[in-house]
Structures are given as C-alpha cells and as structure tokens.
C-alpha cells in the first residue's frame, strides 16, 4: 500500500502535463503487481478512471490481497490480450520487479512491446519491467517517461544501459531503513 501511495503521489504531480485522465495499469503476478493493484485502489478512491491488465491468474499473497480489494472497489480488471492502447493518457508498468532475472516469457514480452509502442505517458513503478535491478541489463524493457523507484535507488537503475529505458528517475521514500551491511557493494 505504501508503494501504491508513493506512486500515486508522483502520478498526481504529473497529471497536469498529461492529456486525459484514463489510466492503464499492467500488473504482474508478484509484489510489483501488488503495487499496481494498490495504486488502482487509490486512483479509484480519487475518481480517476483506470483499467488493470493482468498477465497471470496466480498472484503473490500481497498482490492477491490488493487484486481482491480492487475488484471489490469496482476497478476494471481484465487479462492482457494485446488490447489497443490508444485512448489511454497514462500507462503504469507494474509487471516485473527487482527480482527479475533472465529472459522474458512471451506474454510479458508482448505486454512490454505494447507499452513501448503506445503513445501514452509511461510510468514504471520501482524498476522498468524487463531490467535486472542489480546490473541494469535488459534484452527488452519498458521505456518509461518516469520511473518511481520505491524505498531506495536500485543499483541497476544507475547504469548506462538503464539510461536507454528511463526518462526521469525519482525515489519514493516509504520508510525503509537499510542496515549498514546492506550498503556494501
């Protein structure tokens, strides 16, 4: 919920520069998808129209909790089947988080390609889907206008390769305190 609130804060700041108020949120099965479902709940409470596209019917515990909450609130949730992305003011990428490694499954590849082909303003939450959070490598990743990383900036977001995918990078403080041991490179 904190991640969804943080993303909503930066999205509200961006609204004035985006034509339209219809949002599309792509949610994966893990906790990054949970961030997206939590964001959908917040937007729904603020009377901002959004549609959630899912790529799986199986969710992590947090993701399932917020998916159910969003459904009860009346958020439009549907499976991704390469919809036309025209008419959406903003696309929010909550497909894959910092744990992503390796190659993309075909349905995720299709979703990322659709996001990249859209003319909408693109926001990635925590990290651009398809990018390795440790080293910034990516065969294919979401190209965002804004990346709202949660808690702290991931090492991979600071690499030269990440610069190909990230327009603007902001860090949303949600109260995570790192121990000194975790700062060692």
Q: Give the percentage of residues in beta strands.
A: 15-25%
Please provide the ordered H/E string of secondary-structure elements: HEHEHEEHEEE
Low-pLDDT ranges: none
- N-end to C-end Cα span: 29 Å
Class by helix and strand content? alpha/beta
Query: What is the tally of beta strands?
Result: 7
Give the overall silhouette.
Answer: globular
Physical arrangement of strands within the biggest beta sheet: 3-2-1-4-5-6-7
Mean pLDDT: 85
Main sheet attributes: strand count, strand direction, barrel closure: 7 strands, parallel
Task: Give the helix/strand layout.
Elements: H1 2-14, E1 23-27, H2 31-45, E2 50-54, H3 61-73, E3 76-79, E4 90-94, H4 106-117, E5 121-125, E6 144-150, E7 166-172
Parallel strand pairs: 1-2, 1-4, 2-3, 4-5, 5-6, 6-7
How do you describe this structure in short?
This protein is an alpha/beta fold and 185 residues long. The protein has four helices and seven strands. Helix 2 packs parallel to helix 3.
Report on the architecture of this protein.
This protein is of the alpha/beta class and 185 residues long. 29% of the residues lie in helices and 21% in strands. It contains four helices and seven strands; from the N terminus they run αβαβαββαβββ. It has helices at 2-14, 31-45, 61-73, 106-117, and strands spanning 23-27, 50-54, 76-79, 90-94, 121-125, 144-150, 166-172. It has a seven-stranded parallel beta sheet with strand order 3-2-1-4-5-6-7, sandwiched between helices. Helix 1 (2-14) packs across helix 2 (31-45) and helix 2 packs parallel to helix 3 (61-73). The longest helix has 15 residues, at 31-45. The protein starts with a helix and ends in a 13-residue tail after the last strand. The model has no long low-confidence stretch (mean pLDDT 85).
């Amino acid at each position: 919920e904190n991640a969804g609130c943080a993303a909503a804060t930066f999205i509200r700041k961006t609204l004035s520069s985006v034509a339209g108020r219809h949002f599309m949120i792509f949610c994966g099965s893990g906790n990054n998808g949970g961030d997206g479902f939590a964001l959908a709940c917040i937007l729904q409470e603020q009377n901002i129209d959004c549609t959630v596209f899912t790529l799986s019917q199986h969710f992590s515990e947090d993701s399932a909790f917020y998916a159910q909450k969003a459904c009860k609130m009346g958020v439009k949730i549907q499976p991704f089947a390469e919809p036309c992305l025209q008419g959406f003011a903003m696309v929010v990428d909550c497909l894959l988080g910092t744990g992503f490694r390796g190659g993309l499954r075909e349905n995720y590849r299709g979703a990322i390609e659709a996001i990249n082909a859209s003319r909408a303003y693109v926001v990635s939450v925590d990290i651009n889907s398809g990018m390795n959070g440790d080293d910034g490598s990516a065969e294919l990743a979401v190209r965002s206008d804004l990346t709202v990383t949660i808690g702290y900036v991931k090492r991979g977001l600071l690499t030269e390769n990440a610069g190909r995918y990230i327009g603007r990078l902001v860090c949303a403080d949600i109260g995570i305190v790192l121990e000194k041991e975790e700062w060692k490179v």
